[in-house]
Amino acid sequence: MDILIQNLLNALQWGSFYALIALGYTLVYGVLLLINFAHGDIFMVGAYIAFFVATFFLGLFDFAPWMVLALTVPLTMLLTAGVGVTLERIAYRPLRRKGAHRLYVVITALMCGLILENGNLALLGASRKKFPELLDKVVYTWGNVSVTNLKLIVILAAITVFLILQFIVTRTRIGMAMRGISYDKFAIPLMGIPIDSVIVFTFVLGSGMAGLAGLLFAMSYPILEPYMGALIGWKAFIAAVVGGIGDIRGAFLGGFLLGFIEVGVVAMFPSTYRDLFAFSILLMILWIKPTGIFGVAKTTKI
Amino acid sequence: GCSKEEEKIKIGFNIPLTGDIPKVGEASKNAAQMLLADINAQGGLEVGGKKIPLEFIYEDNESKAESAVNAALKLIEQDGVVALIGPNSSKQAVPAGGTCNDNRTPMVSPWSTNPDTTKNRPWVFRAAFLDPFQGPVAVNFATKQFKATTAAVLFDVSNDYSKGLAEIFKEVFEKKNGADSVVAFVSHGTKDQDFSAQLTKIINSKPDFIFVPDNYNQVALIVRQARDLGWKGPFMGSDAWGSAELMKLCGDDCKGQFFSTHYAAAGAKGATKEFIDRYEAKYGETPDDVAALTWDATRLVLQAIQDSGSYNSDVKKERKAIRDALSSIKEFAGITGSMKFDSQGDPIKCAVVVRIDETGNFVFAESICP
Amino acid sequence: MQKYSFNIGLWALAAVVVALSQFGALDLYIQSVIMFIGINIILSSSLNVVNGYMGEFSCGHAGFMCVGAYVSSVLSVLFFAQDKIFGAPLLPPELAPLGFPIIVLFSGLVAAVTGLIVAIPSFKTRGDYLAIITIAANYMVISAIENMASVGGPRGFMGMKRVVNAMTDVVDIPWMMIWVILGTFMSVWMIRRFVSSTYGKGIMSICQDEVAAEIMSVNTNKMKMAAFMLSSGLAGIAGALFAHVLGYVNPQSFNIMKSTECLVMVYLGGMASLGGSVISAIFFTVMLELLRFIIPAIDTALHFVNILPDSYHLSQVWKWVLIPLTLILLMQFRPEGIMGNKELSDLFPRLKKFYKFK
Amino acid sequence: MNTLLEVKDLRVKYGNIEALHGVSFNVNEGEIVTLIGANGAGKTTTLLSISRLPPPEAPKVIEGDITWKGNSILDMPPHKVISDLHLALVPEGRHIFGNLTVEENLKIATYARKDSIKDIHGDYDRVFTLFPRLAERKKQRSESLSGGEQQMLAVGRAIMSKCNFIMLDEPSMGLAPLLMYDMFRTLKQLNKEGLSILLIEQNAHLALKFAHRGYVLDTGEIVASGSSADLMDNPEVKKAYLGG
Amino acid sequence: MSLLSIDGLTQRFGGLQAVSDFNIELEEGSLTGLIGPNGAGKTTIFNLISGFYQPTEGIIKLDGTPTRGLKPHQVTALGVARTFQNIRLWHDMTVMDNIRIAQHYRLGYDFFDAIMRSKNYYRREKEIERISTELLEFMDLRQYAEELPTNLPYGLQRRVEIARAMSIQPKLLLLDEPAAGLNSSDVEGLIKLIRWIHNEFDITILMIEHQMKVVMSLCSWIKCIDFGATIAEGTPEDIQSSETVIKAYLGDDSI
Ligand SMILES: Nc1ncnc2c1ncn2[C@@H]1O[C@H](COP(=O)(O)OP(=O)(O)OP(=O)(O)O)[C@@H](O)[C@H]1O
Ligand SMILES: Nc1ncnc2c1ncn2[C@@H]1O[C@H](COP(=O)(O)OP(=O)(O)OP(=O)(O)O)[C@@H](O)[C@H]1O
Ligand SMILES: [Mg+2]
Ligand SMILES: [Mg+2]
After folding, report:
1. Which ligand 1 atom sits nearest the alpha carbon of residue D58?
2. Which residues in chain A show pLDDT less than 70?
3. Whose CA is nearest to atom 14 of ligand 1?
4. pLDDT value of position B53
5. D1-76+198-244, what's its fold?
6. CA of C31 to the centre of ligand 3 (A)
7. pTM of the model as a whole
8. Which part of the chain is the ABC transporter domain (chain E) (predicted)?
9. Sequence-separated (6 or more) residues with CB below 8 Å from residue A140
């Protein structure tokens, strides 16, 4: 029983990260049908930004860690959003303007990701960074179940972000515009909607969330290295698709699902088979629901 | 006028500057740079009474097998190096070793632990000891130190070093403590960051200690997460822990743990201490085992060049001379301990077990020789 | 006669390359680069069948390559080489030059059958959903092999050099160079014939309007299967050649990074352009190697004009910054890839005189 | 009468192909003007140029001017054309947002409107009385609508945007006769309330019957113009566009 | 015997009944019109006939063979060709390729023939080439054979789409609003073309159209549906004067 609860908590935390990153994927995808393969690396950049911001404040003033944290959260989100928007401006937008096939933008995103990773490596060197402790760790223990305050914060953050995004996308006018763009970019300006602003807004949201995820991740797994975003990025993408890409609920659920599957497989089967089993399960889900859990099949009207 | 190009001894480095383990490449390169500067400052390597300057050429193998082969071929064919240092990890060292052996160029891998790297390859050598030796060291030490009868193992399935060592450890431990005394044998993937599921499984099987033959960066995460999950027992590690960064990343959580390795930085004496101090001064961090092993590997090659008595400007002949000299080195006093070479070109050397003390230094606990 | 001059030219070029390798005029490094170019051509052109001509987004090409590499390695070692796992060779090593191509083709076949795990879901789902099925397939193949201790697991598998040596023992010619060239020609030739037949053009109709294709009598499921199997089969052949050129395989050599390299080559060359795939494979491979020489040159140049501080040297790390940067710039100038969806003959109609591009 | 929109010597290009070679015409406040012409004459191109949509879908203006109440709008971004000038376009090929419901499609068209919720609701009613079918399909994802229903939605969106100038590109395409006539009657009614209309219609007969004035476009040039009655009597126009 | 017989056809989408208990018998060689208000279910009926949807209820028989369970390409192989309400040509392939690919079901060679370029391959390709050229010739499209459809004017695209359907050599041709988007003179041409095809190839045609001129001058029998069920049928004259049809569909043409 204890094991079950413990694993449940583990899965919730790990799934939270998948969910946070998958939300960013889905948001951008939902608007531009662009698989932003650089998203994992934007997340990595977010973690680094958080690192620099936090060490800056810690080093410069004699702030209490919690004050530093309070400053780091918004700054990180803002700066990371800046990175995302910059990519959009200099790499994706010109291609879009030229009417390139969307997969060329996807490949460009992939390349941007590589530049972020290796540029970081080239500039900062291969040494890993240790993220400073900004939160006094509290371990709550009941019987064999242990959980840290950080874990709870992470889970809470994922849920909050999900609710906010879900509200924006489904309830607001700009959210409606975002959904419209994915279907027909041509007609959006005809509705009086400034398309570029909406796209920039999307990148601000998506990358901001990646920044938040990066910060929380750095606090939970305080070792930063240039390639830290690659694998988790790919997996979060998979989670987003399994949930039904383009759908906020899908990304959220898909992230947790992947977290649960990975933790579950390790807990129940020989751990060496984790990837094999986890991906088989995901394939099975897609087999049953070919457009993901929340994905709606595009009805081809002929 | 007609200036003849200055004669130089070219040595190639086939190292992972990008890809999965850039830190390994960087450390290798740092150590090599330091050695290069040392020797060239004296006017070059003294061979047969003549000083010849050195030139080191660094090629990135991107941590990929095919790139390692291409890099090796480029160094051999285009740059005409007389010997190669690296690759470091076995994934690249095994195929690159084949290439060097086929092309009759001596190669010394600092770090590779896979027996295949050197097996039946007269041109390939290494500076690190093999898993089959390190496994028992860890078992014996842990059994004695922790009075352990049960153990758990957490390793990286996709990393042949980690997996190989884990398997040997399991075999030896169970031979000593009876079947099923390794109560949990759990794996993770190479770039994983969350180990809570694995650790939950391990903690629940209540082992006396956890053996973690993993790279230091993952060790830092594993140890921390284990503490978060309520584990209070000891860990035992392997040589891959031995990085300067371990303490920076792991902090207090790792203090008091033990691991087996090639050398202990703290409390080192003589040449080792000098190396460490200078490296620290130059790069601002304690050299890890890769740096030390690269240093030794390169010095081995230089030693061989000197042993051969004269430098031959015909590259092919010089390579042969180096190989012959390498294979006849009987004993070599490296900063990672003194080593002898067996018929395969693998070193026989002592392992040390190191304890991480309260100040975070790696202090010598015990030396175990084969 | 004139119509075949293009073909004849290619074969002549191949013969020259082989001859130069044989007599040592090309050093081993250049030879190895040429062989990797050949392998990359197979990879990119075969992926183009699915991603370009059929318009799907398959991201797990390396998985099929992996299958081909392992199947061929195990078989060739089993049959023609002494090995610590498989023991004595089943056949006399003198037969290696005959047996090897059969093994390569067979491993292609096995990879093609593996391709079914992607082809069958593609009946129901498309686009980005298919993308993750292929990624998952890639991971699963790697994970499966890592769990197979008999082929070395994460340690990798070797012994193929001995098979190549066995071939050299029979006749001393650059065997692998010959096989790679033959494999490349065969792949490009197969794809060319496939996509230029009315039968194969069925996949292009799926790309442009699947509904119309199905209603206009194209058996879309069958065509998808054919395309996926052709593509993964050729990837398997590329894998088999790769394994024997390297003499060593390791599951991590076929991870998602390798797949993305294939993707980059396809889109760089241009979707649905075979010529583009060939050109971009050459460009990509050569650029990767050239940067080994260019970066030190840039470093020297920058130091010469004193832009860089003395203590800082540009290292090879910058390679993987420069490559994507170049590709991004290239795509900004040619947002449809080097060749768009055109072939050489469309851009230079006069070439048609020399070769029938059908 | 005030001239609302004026197009002067407009030349536009798709890539390297010139689609309009100097087109000039104007629309006055409260007028209904129609552009007729064969397939490919450049009618759609003209409307897209006025809407200031960016390439690649829309053409690039290389010469000439488009003015709105005397001010050039060539530098205006497309969304401003709607939100500031209140100039709407019902594009050829409907371009509805298939992943949104019918209701959301109508709602998105009010994006630039700044008036009260109540006014907006009044317009919903107007659309739903004109096209009762849309009311029945309110919650349906619009991509599964029938061809004609989608066309209704496209026109409905233009009404929702509450513009005082609407450009319609073949609004009757795919509509059943009954509905087509209803739609034209409603548009006429809106026109009486002050709406100006620029109409493109394949059925020249119908278009001229509906409009006050017309222009005839042929391969990128205006070849005839005048009041509807004049054009209908013009023998050339009769022969080429009215089917004899 | 009738070529197409539909009995009790019903199609539901969720709660929506798009077609309800629809019946029709088409005699061989007839030219029938299908009209009805927007959203009446006309296109849905076409989709059901061509196998794109599986009917919720009802039986569709072609030449006596029930088509339930057949995939669209199998139905097409039985001799049912169609055009689409919105043109769906393969826009990046030449007109010639469009015509050739539509003959996929009777290519008569397989993958290996294509790769090995067997005798059979050349024989069949030649045959298809011949048929396609001939067809383009017939349809006055010969000079556009190597053009991309996107570069053709709308009227010609419609014609190419009909040619593509004809290359299937159908027994039954389904035309979905062939005159939509055509100007008056093109409509005249279209009427002539359809009439000519009907006579020349002696095939059965069922067409949906909103332009009364087209329907009235071509069809010998017209069926008017609303809410997926027949509300009136008869000759053009009957329909034009039917109160029900006027009320539900034609309306009055005063503007
Ligand atoms: N996106 C485009 N790229 C290139 N050429 C185009 C493009 N769109 C239209 N054209 C060309 O511009 C010319 C005018 O086209 P336009 O669509 O304006 O005609 P139209 O009068 O609206 O015809 P229709 O009655 O068919 O709608 C045509 O020759 C057409 O081929
Ligand atoms: N896939 C679908 N899912 C849900 N509803 C659908 C679907 N396809 C059609 N419908 C609905 O069924 C009804 C009939 O559609 P259909 O396309 O057959 O109409 P139609 O008679 O062809 O009309 P039009 O003349 O406008 O083309 C419409 O109301 C439409 O909304
Ligand atoms: Mg038009
Ligand atoms: Mg319809």
Report:
1. 1
2. none
3. D42
4. 93
5. Rossmann fold (3.40.50)
6. 58
7. 0.93
8. 4-252
9. A146, A147, A148, A149
